[in-house]
Amino acid sequence: MADTSDIRNGLCIRFNHDIYQVVEFLHVKPGKGAAFVRTKLKSMTTGKVLDNTFPSGSKLEEIRVENRKYQYLYGDDEGFNFMNIQDYEQIYLNRNLIESADLLKEGDVVDILFNAEEERPLTVDLPPFVEMEITYTEPGVKGDTATNAMKPAKVETGAEIKVPLFINEGDRIKIDTRTRSYVERLKN
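User: That's the sequence. What structure does it adopt?
Assistant: Structure tokens below.
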């Protein structure tokens, strides 16, 4: 058991019959009244973020989690197959555990967060940036670059993202997987 003094970013706790990860916290000691801890908790099953306030000294049930590296092998209609890099064990995960799954490329290495007590996967974290090739986009119009205009483009995995007008088919770009946004064009 942990208490409010143990709260830190990344801590996983059991709360309201679910597993939550602390995203943000703030210890508050008002001039009048008891101290408390204001937190933002992210559900590891649904991905929803909620605000909660714990009175100082509250007991929390800490969940032991482990981060393991897995390589993405392939996907099908139901989900995705991954292989542990250390022992080559393969696991199958449902689509709902992966945010921005359409940015996964075969061979990519991802971090899978496991509930160590139950050996159950909780979430899949993609690398922060991926490199992809543009497979389809409308050609940019010459002289249309005065503004920061963006156009839709399809990448090699089938995902659609917004890119600047000067990007063409065949260009390789860097994509931020957290925001699904264009970062830069890469040299071939």
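Residues 72 and 108 are 5 Å apart (CA to CA).
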